[in-house]
Amino acid sequence: MEVVFMASRAVTIVAIVAIVIAACSIALAAQTYYEVFMLSAKLENLKESLRTITSEVSITIDYGNGTTRTHKLLVPIGYTALDALRCIAKVGTKLYSWGEYIVAIDDVYESFEKNLYWLWYIMGDKGNWELAPVGAGAYVLKSGDHIKFSYERPPW
């Protein structure tokens, strides 16, 4: 009788320990879920705040050899096309009285001999690339802009 009592007491203790572990696990899972839910809400609020101080833009670099890279990025409001390009590539420029002139992107330099230069374009309303009307340092980006820097022969 004493052995049965000891065995049933051991089973009872194991059952109580299992219930306590299960209860702690449920409480921990609930706490984790709550924290993830709260962090998700904070993340959405942060994203909304960022939309008021940043612009989402897309920049394509065409290296003229079949290699292109496209980057989507958030830039501070007021950034120029040149500022954004510097965020994603190594840019070489020459400074003139009218502004900076791009001579190289990622160590691909303009070539007078081959008549190859860095031109830049803005995606037009009809989905076509339009040669930019101003230098990259003078064009202030707006949210949704898609621009392209292309190593090519000028069309003129």
Task: Give the structure's gist in a few sentences.
The protein is built from 2 helices and 8 strands; from the N terminus they run H-E-E-H-E-E-E-E-E-E.
How is the main sheet built?
5 strands, mixed
Structural class: alpha+beta
Query: How many strands in all?
Result: 8
**Fraction of helical residues:** 25-40%
Q: What is the N-to-C succession of helices and strands?
A: HEEHEEEEEE
Query: If you compute it from the alpha carbons, what radius of gyration comes out, rounded to the nearest whole angstrom?
Result: 30 Å
Which architecture of one domain per CATH?
Beta Complex
Strand content is 25-35%
Question: What is the general shape?
Answer: elongated
CATH third-level topology of one domain? Ferric Hydroxamate Uptake Protein, Chain A, domain 1
The helix count comes to 2
Mean pLDDT across residues = 93
Distance between the termini: 106 Å
CATH class membership of one domain: Mainly Beta
Main sheet: which strands, in order across?
2-1-8-6-7
Regions with little confidence, pLDDT below 50 for 5+ residues: none
